[in-house]
Amino acid sequence: MALVDVYAGPERRIASVGDYFALLKPRVMSLVIFTGFAGLVVAPGHIHLLSAFTALLCIAVAAGASGALNMAYDSDIDAVMARTATRPIPMGRIAREEALMFGWWLSVASVTMMGLFINLLSAALLAFTIFFYVVVYTLWLKRSTAQNIVIGGLSGALPPAIGWAAVTGQVTLAPIVLVAIIFFWTPPHFWALALFRSDDYARAGVPMMPVVAGKASTRRQIFAYTLLLLPIGLAPAALGFAGPLYLASAGLMSAWFLSAATKVLFERDAVKEPAAKKLFFVSIAYLFVLFAALIAERLIDIAPFGAWL
Question: Which CATH fold would you assign to the domain 172-309?
Fold first, then answer.
């Protein structure tokens, strides 16, 4: 009697180190490490170099764990979206169950290390970040509301506060402002992506803003969030924990961001969305320059590091 192959789906292949690295979402992880490093550097006080490295390692591992869990739980969505169809799970190189086990083990390890070697507050914030991204955003918000990015953005905004807490053992107004910058940056950044990837999201049944509210409404909301973001981006200088280099950098980048968002607001090409594509890359440059300026000022001791908030 002939044997019948009942396996459905992509052919399973042996996973490589590169496949597991891709599972960690390295591009997202690099941004998390960068903003977490900014929190470490800008925080008042001192931290031993080995402790700083350990804290950053925990932040990196937690970010990678969140990415792996996100890919595992979203593997059905990823398989039908052009942007994500080549990820390791849809391609059959890593099984969903293996990705789940990998992600949860990394999550537990990162939080445990942070609690044992740094402090409990930073570990608690790290655990909350993983929980919020995986459970609140991935499993609930992403599939149920067009506000998924707005609310879910909190998880990606917390690394500066985690870095700050690793140094000081507390969270004050300054790290909250840094968190707010990333939080209000997230909607225009991701909705710009959603504008020129709206067909992908519609095909996958993900209720992103352009799919649910339409592109015109999304453009208006991008512009509104940009207007909210820009004064918050200048707040570190106004509050005294950033100096002239940061103020000049934030001012220039804010003008560029506003110009790009304005072009999105009046975009006429609703198919190719060139203005949205430009805004997506401008938004990445904006966040990088602001946090790089903060780091640079601290390292060269320009900013007035006297009385801290």
Answer: Four Helix Bundle (Hemerythrin (Met), subunit A) (1.20.120)
Structure tokens at 121: 């507050």
- Model confidence over 51-87: pLDDT tens digits? 999 999 999 999 999 999 999 999 999 999 999 999 9
| Residue range 264-278, pLDDT digits in tens | 999 988 888 999 999
User: How far is it, in rounded angstroms, from Cα 279 to Cα 227?
Assistant: 14
**How many C-beta atoms surround the C-beta of residue 148 within 10 A?**
22
Asked whether 175 and 39 are in contact (CB, 8 A), the reply is: yes
Detail the DSSP E strand segments found in 7-52. none
Contacts of residue 233, defined as CB under 8 A and 6 or more positions apart, other chains included, come to 181, 250, 253, 254, 286, 290
By the 8 A CB rule, do 233 and 178 touch? no
Residue 264's SS3 state is: helix
Alpha helices in 88-214 (DSSP H): 96-117, 120-131, 142-144, 148-157, 159-168, 173-196, 198-204, 209-212
Task: Give, in order, the Cα–Cα distances in Å from 54 to each of 40, 117, 166.
Answer: 11, 8, 10
17-170: which CATH topology?
Tetracycline Repressor; domain 2 (1.10.357)
45: Cα within 13 Å, side-chain hemisphere: 15
Cα(279)–Cα(139) distance, integer angstroms? 28
